[in-house]
Prior knowledge:
- The protein is mainly alpha-helical.
- The chain has 8 helices and 2 strands; from the N terminus they run αββααααααα.
- The protein has a two-stranded antiparallel sheet with strand order 1-2.
- Helix 1 (2-14) packs antiparallel against helix 2 (40-60).
Amino acid sequence: YGAFETLLGEANERVPIRILAYCLMPNHWHLLLSPYSNGDLSRFAKWLTTTHAVRWHRAHGTVGTGAVYQSRFKSIPVERGPHLYRVWRYIERNALRANLVERAEDWRWSSLHRRTLGRSPEWLDEGPTRLPSDWADVVNIPQTDSELATLRRSMALGQPFGSDGWCAEQNPSRGRLD
């Protein structure tokens, strides 16, 4: 996990991008990213995943034995405001939802843990607006089944996550999912 956190910083140096939130899990990870310009997200993800796979194989003596990742990364556009915070909260409560900790901020390998301790790495961005002072408490409130289903559906379909009008602008053929 520590090596992957270091790798996030290295990736950010190579391809500057706003890293708003992250949660590293035993078999996957979640990132909330905001690129500065077109193409940044793909360049960042390509360097991160390729470098991670090479280093993982080297560390485990499995070079040439197969893929580390099952498929290409998934990304969806997210509208600022309440929708952004719903995704942020989803990411930072991932370890809690998986029953790895009793409180989300206790998961050492997450942006919430780092922010709560006041030890955020340089590369962790504060976001477009300040998080509420009680953000850790907000993250620990269970998400509704409906909220989870809507967000997961958007991710599964690769559809924008936001209000009706905003989603229609992002993907005129589809529209809003929640």
